[in-house]
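Practice problem: predict the structure.
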Amino acid sequence: MKVNIGVFARPMLGLLQEKIEEAVSKGICREVSAANLMLDIVSLNVFPYMSSLLVNAVLNGCMDDQERFLEQRKKRITTP
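Answer:
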């Protein structure tokens, strides 16, 4: 069974955009599009896995201990 993810994603992005606009009006956050926010979240979480060999080579073995590296990324991404 083929499922069109857009059927689920578009309404979700619409609801997220409403929540963002509500938060902006209350001064909680700055204006951002829901699509860009989702892209940023996915990129921050997928990039280390997809590019691990390149990142490890360029950054001199920083991912040799992948568990430790990913824990550091988690803290970096989730800490304001």
